[in-house]
Amino acid sequence: MASGSRVDMDPDVARKLFEEGATLVLLGVPQGTVFGIDYKSWKVGPRFRGVKMIPPGLHFLNYCSVNSPSCGGEVGPKTGLFLHLKPRDVLLANWDPKEEDLNFSASSNEEEVSRIRASLQDLDPYLGPYPYEVMRKWVSLSDRLREELAINLQPLSGRVRSYSDVVPETEFRHTKDRAEQPRNDTACQTMREGLDRLPKMKEREGTELRFSAIPEKTYPPGATPAQITQCSMDFTYALETLLDQNHRQDPLDLLGELQFAFVCFLIGNVYEAFEHWKRLLSLLCRAEAAMQKHKELYLGLIAVLYHQLGEIPPDFFVDIVSQNNFLTSTLQDFFQFASGPGVDGTLRKRAEKFKTHLTKKFNWDFDADLDECEPVVVDLPEGFTVA
Known about the structure:
The chain has helices spanning 11-20, 110-118, 120-123, 135-142, 147-153, 175-179, 191-197, 225-233, 236-246, 253-266, 271-285, 288-293, 295-311, 314-321, 326-338, 345-362, and strands spanning 22-27, 34-37, 40-43, 50-54, 57-64, 79-85, 90-96, 101-103, 127-129, 160-161, 166-168, 201-203. With 387 residues, the chain is of the alpha+beta class. The protein is globular.
């Protein structure tokens, strides 16, 4: 945190966090590094040694290395990782300047951790307090995300990176192999020719996010034309397949995966996660029969979306979400299905209330026919404003 930063906190909360909170001791983090935990980030000052008074539970640590001022002071891509902290935990990490990353191997050294724990009082002036003012917001974005689920979804490397770490699909270990590849010493006649000359790349093993595989087809093998048509309008078969293959023990874990993808995108800057979030949302919102079967899943979905959409900047919809009317058309289908006669009364009322909230907040009309390309707005009477 920047030197001189100050966080006001209720004295009773401060006392409890001081007694029960976990501590992250992060040594050697270069000054100017952009460091964040959960929903808040800072530029690291010269006295920074970590964060104290962290509420027990799941947290998303994220950071970006920064070039020295002599090299332009440019901020690098973001790296993040999910950590589950217990009461009074002390986690120790050292900055690796070569990898520009935190190395937590020291946390497995009990003797070193004991030494750090014994010197916490001396370290206290160099530890920034957890930003308590964002705790409620963070919990609302991650309350369905269990520790085990987060571990299973994040890359095997343990790092969620905003860029893809790619390597060639084929390694050319010998001169003969490289000689057989298309030569680049002549001008390309077309863009396609240029692209074909580039080596085929793939994500480095262990660095890819491990999301649930969404079925490519929404209908079962051997389906009749009538079944294909039905399953193309109602995605229940595809949703049930995903739940059976990935969240059989607890279908509500799908909401945790939705939160994981949203956090990775909104805080971790991973665009791939946004694409997965969109696909999951489309699957859930267009599964008409599933709404009648999975009441708790859909009540939870409304709560998750309520908090997620409350955190997205207003102009985000113009730039990304409104593209091809994804969100408005998807939610229109959801509200239409949720008002059906076979849907539980509580879910139907909750969906109607959510629909009213979104209409007021974003000026959308979910009852109108959506234009193919333009976002839909409600025509308000003259002088009428929406808070």
